[in-house]
Design a protein that fits this description.
Blueprint lengths: L5 H10 L13 E4 L8 E3 L2 E13 L9 E8 L4 E3 L1 E7 L3 E8 L5 E4 L11 E4 L4 E7 L4 E8 L6 H7 L4 E7 L8 E10 L8 E6 L9 E5 L4 E7 L5 E5 L4 E8 L3 E3 L6 E3 L1 E4 L3 E7 L5 E7 L48 E7 L13 E9 L9 E7 L2 E4 L9 E4 L4 E7 L7 E4 L28 E6 L5 E7 L4 H5 L3 E7 L10 E8 L9 E3 L8 E3 L5 E7 L5 E6 L7 E7 L2 E2 L7 E3 L1 E5 L3 E6 L5 E9 L5 E8 L1
Parallel strand pairs: 1-3, 1-5, 3-7, 6-12, 13-16, 15-24, 25-29, 28-33, 34-37, 36-45
Antiparallel strand pairs: 2-3, 3-4, 4-5, 7-10, 8-9, 8-11, 11-12, 13-14, 16-22, 17-21, 17-23, 18-19, 18-20, 18-22, 23-24, 25-26, 26-27, 29-31, 30-32, 32-33, 34-35, 37-43, 38-42, 38-44, 39-40, 39-41, 39-43, 44-45
Helix pairs in contact: 1-2
């Protein structure tokens, strides 16, 4: 599983001929593994564990919901699980692992070796045979093991038929280890055929939201999570209502832990395919909070097709008819308008503490109306009104920036003039859960509603840090996001003035959802006008990716001669010293990510500006004209 496989793997998944998910008939029930209990027997510094590869019946949704027939790991004599059994040992432990391949095809198992290790080293096991391996755990970190039951020449099939063959492998440092949780992402796709659309099953620890585990903590509690991504897709993992520190980043064979000065604070971390992360955060507000992938396709059920298996036909898996689909509530009355890669954290109030809501000293309206552009997909218009002043972007293709002041209590009223409900999420702000914009969120006493047609909702917050953030629709309907219900939210320090002549927004969007949009936009335009700069002058560039499903490559300058810039911030947080440096003006960033750079052109020239879809043909080509 090379870490660079994302592009070719994802393209293969979506364009190859259909591959059946169903395998041989199976009676084993596959359990969801919450990764709380390590597998095997640890004694005198040696972990002995006996794994098996089998096929079974997996309920990725409700336990009595639609089944899938897939391959999975399990301990010998125990049920299969997705993800596979948790291997967790202290540094210095010797592992003795036996693996039985009880599947009908050859299997190659990777990741059962000393860390760091060779990513290409695997254990080949013919069907019906067993293998044993003994090794020392190696360096502390967050890793995983995994298996393939198809040849490399059939990579597209591998990520479908055996996508769930993986499990967490954690090596703890010596001494006391702070408590943490381990969450493994999984993604399986069935391709379309002449009769059926494709469907996708996205899970965390073996379940798809709303059936994922709800975790519970107390306000102010320090929380550590290990996130493992063995899937073919990168995932921009976004936390609502709080920042989290990235303690380590790695893959299944190596891990890099950061010391305190080098830990980056983010609200969205792009976790590349085949990579791992340990994160730490402390919720500052009670309520229900989301942690989810920011790709709309991985968390929205607006185009979802649930999985049904006809009884007695496990080798001929088909998709449901439209009459069998799970109904989608357009009223967005609960948090169940989402699915897939979503965790909900229920944060209890800290005993004895109360929070008085600040009286807003500044009031702003965000007015959302239907767009005027005609075409296959709807467009929308956002305008910002404060007092008698009404501001909209020139072509009304996206919302204008909302500029607020750190420490100033603010109220923004969302006015919905659409014929459908909507809601606005204040991406990156640390605010009360009731105002976060997630329908069905909030607290037990105040549940966040959708903003119904013809109604309004007032969100209150006091920004506690200056930086670049986003406001955007959090509706399940992807057309609202691709149609322009978004904009930049800029928080300035007291006394600072917003200077659009030198403070440049570069907001990347897309006119369709899905990973292969045909039209990208920059500041709402498919064909943006050149930007005019002066040489020798410093400019603040605020880059935002708010396309529904976009892994983007941004570049200033040509491929052979890129420009240079100075990295300043990510998601509104100042970068640590290891990242706050000058370098080539190139950036890979995913949906929901925000970056700040300082850019100073030194000569009169025309500088190419290009944004590419990392796994598609759509791109934006523009330029900066330097006088």
């Amino acid at each position: 599983m090379p870490t660079s496989r994302f592009l070719c793997g994802l393209v293969l998944i979506y364009i190859l001929a259909g591959v059946a998910v169903a395998q041989s008939p199976a009676s084993d029930e596959i359990l969801a593994n919450q990764n709380r209990t390590p597998a095997g027997k640890l004694e005198n510094g040696v972990l002995t564990v006996h794994l098996e590869i089998r096929s079974g019946t997996w309920h990725a949704e409700a336990d009595d919901g639609p089944p899938l027939y897939v391959q999975a790991f399990g301990e010998a004599g125990q049920p299969l699980s997705i993800p596979g059994p948790l291997l967790r040992v202290p540094e210095g432990t010797t592992l003795k692992v036996a693996i039985d391949n009880k599947y009908k095809k050859p299997a190659t198992v990777f990741g059962l070796n000393t860390r760091p290790g060779d990513p290409k080293a695997g254990i080949a096991i013919p069907p019906g045979e067993s293998r044993e391996t003994t090794f020392v755990a190696g360096a502390p970190g967050t890793y995983y093991y995994w298996a393939r039951t198809v040849s490399p020449e059939k990579a597209g099939e591998a990520y479908l038929a055996d996508a769930q063959l993986n499990g967490a492998f954690i090596v703890d440092p010596p001494g006391d280890v702070p408590p943490d949780r381990v969450f493994v992402l999984n993604l399986m796709v069935t391709l379309a055929d002449a009769l059926h659309p494709r469907f996708e099953t996205a899970t965390i620890n073996g379940k798809s939201y709303p059936h994922t585990e709800m975790v519970q903590y107390t306000e102010g509690e320090t929380i550590r999570w290990r996130i493992i991504n063995p899937t073919v897709s990168e995932h921009p993992m976004h936390l609502h209502g709080a920042f989290y520190k990235v303690l380590s980043l790695g893959d299944y064979e190596s891990d890099t832990a950061y010391s305190e000065p080098d830990r980056q604070s983010v609200v969205t971390q792009n976790l590349m395919d085949g990579h791992t992360m340990m994160m730490e955060w402390a919720p500052g507000h009670e309520g229900r909070w989301l942690f989810h992938c920011h790709f709309h396709t991985h968390v929205s059920d607006s185009e979802r097709v649930p999985v049904f298996m006809p009884a007695g036909k496990p080798d001929d898996q088909t998709l449901p008819t439209r009459q069998e689909e799970i109904a989608h509530s357009i009223g967005m009355m609960t948090m169940n308008d989402m699915f897939g890669l979503v965790l909900v954290t229920n944060v209890l109030p800290k005993p004895g503490e109360t929070h008085a809501e600040a009286v807003p000293v500044r009031k702003i309206d965000l007015v959302i109306e239907p767009g005027t552009e005609s075409g296959k997909r709807p467009t929308f218009s956002c305008a910002v009104r404060e007092g008698r002043k009404l501001v909209a972007s020139q072509d009304k293709s996206m919302g204008p920036p909302i500029v607020v002041i750190r420490g100033q209590p603010t109220e923004i009223t969302v006015v919905n003039r659409l014929s459908l409900p909507t809601t606005i999420h204040w991406h990156g702000l640390e605010l009360d859960a009731y105002y976060d914009g997630v329908v069905g969120g909030g607290t037990a006493s105040r549940v966040t509603p959708s903003v119904a047609p013809g109604s309004s909702f007032a969100a209150r917050f006091t920004p506690n840090r200056a930086g670049t953030f986003i406001y955007h629709t959090h509706a399940a309907d992807a057309d609202q996001l691709s149609g322009g219900i978004y904009g930049a939210l800029i928080v300035l320090d007291p006394g600072e003035k917003y200077d659009p002549d030198h403070d440049k927004l570069l907001v990347v969007g897309a006119r369709e959802s899905g990973f292969f949009p045909k039209q990208l936009t920059l500041n709402g335009a498919a064909e943006p006008e050149p930007l005019l700069f002066h040489h020798g002058v410093k400019y603040h560039l605020r880059l935002i990716n708010i396309a529904p499903d976009l892994a983007a490559d941004f570049r200033l300058g040509s491929k052979d001669h890129p420009a240079t810039w100075l990295a300043l911030a990510k998601d509104g947080a100042i970068l640590p010293p290891r990242l706050a440096r000058s370098g080539e003006a190139t950036l890979h960033f995913d949906s929901g990510e925000v970056y700040d750079f300082e850019f100073q052109p030194e000569a009169i020239a025309e500088i190419p500006l290009e944004v590419d879809n990392s796994f598609g043909e759509a791109k934006i080509i523009s330029k900066i004209i330097v006088h």
